[in-house]
Design a protein that fits this description.
The protein is mainly alpha-helical and 306 residues long. Helices cover 47% and strands 4% of the residues.
């Protein structure tokens, strides 16, 4: 890729330098502005202006071009020198191509102010050339190529026809900022509508029929002590009941109600422990050696003798 020339100037009162490289319309304008700044600060006589900045052209091609025309260029004005430089070193028909680019520009999705500044900068490169657009021409161009949504707002605002380009741009900029705020608001609403809803799973048939309430209390996880109690007392980690005949994977009781749940204790486990079934008391047994008979208080059982 061809390197682009650069304009360097250490101070406004020092002659500028134009480095080696391709000269573009922007580089030519920068060189012209830097030279005129130097002329103003040093009060350089118009007759001496060209030869005072000639040594700053560092590109050998540009330097040779100047030397072969030195008498003519030095005798003319600085404006004539810049015109000759643009003709010799800028792309052929550069002004027409740049004007066509400016005239074909559209706002599209850019902010109006960013787009308007860009067009003004491009048009500034054409200053002094017949292709340069006046303020009124540039205003008409901007007005004709703003986006459709902004066109409606500008039409309804009924801006005065006699506004300067600067004032007109500021008015339209304000309208465009309103448009961008509306777009951002609509985008946010659309994102909220299309945001995936959080899935909620019910723990039992009763809870699945209840609407989700984000403010409802949530059941906390089992503590280590609660787990130890449930394991010791044949409990279920899901319904959190002691002495049941199922495990959490087979549980159909569901989790307890979080609003009334209390941390499990040893007392809860003991209270849930099944009670032992009563057994009938048996009285002492007497043994009758003579008849090989055992007698009970409740019954008499005879056993055969050995």
């Amino acid at each position: 890729m061809t390197k682009t020339a650069i304009v360097e100037q250490s101070a406004p009162s020092k002659p500028p330098k134009l480095t080696a490289g391709e000269i573009t319309p922007q580089v030519a304008l920068d060189w012209e502005n830097a030279c005129e700044t130097y002329f103003m600060h040093k009060s350089v006589d118009p007759a001496d202006q060209v030869k005072m900045i000639a040594s700053g052209m560092l590109d050998p091609r540009l330097r040779t071009w100047y030397l072969t025309r030195r008498a003519t260029l030095n005798a003319g004005t600085f404006a004539e020198y810049m015109s000759a430089l643009r003709i010799a070193w800028l792309e052929s028909n550069w002004a027409n191509k740049l004007r066509k680019k400016v005239l074909g520009s559209r706002q599209n999705n850019r902010s109006f102010y960013e787009w308007a500044l860009d067009l003004q900068n491009q048009n500034a490169l054409l200053y002094g050339n017949p292709s340069y657009l006046s303020d009124n021409q540039l205003k008409d161009l901007l007005d004709a190529n703003i986006c459709d949504e902004l066109t409606v707002k500008v039409f309804r605002a009924k801006l005065a026809d006699d506004l300067t380009l600067k004032d007109w741009i500021e008015e339209v900029k304000s309208l465009d900022e309103e448009r961008l705020e509306d777009l951002a608001s609509h985008k946010k609403i659309a994102e909220e509508l299309h945001k995936p809803k959080r899935a909620t799973s019910s723990t039992n048939k009763t809870s699945s029929s209840k609407p989700y309430n984000d403010s409802s209390p949530r059941l906390g996880s089992l503590t280590e002590n609660e787990r130890a109690l449930l394991m010791k007392h044949k409990g279920c980690f899901k319904c959190r009941k002691f002495y049941v005949s199922h495990q959490s994977k087979d549980c159909t009781d569901g989790a307890p109600d979080a609003s009334s749940y209390k941390t499990l204790t040893e007392s809860d486990a003991n209270a849930a422990k099944p009670k032992a079934k009563p057994v009938a008391a048996v009285g002492p047994v007497a043994y009758d050696r003579k008849h090989n008979v055992r007698e009970s208080k409740h019954r008499r059982i005879t056993t055969p003798a050995n």
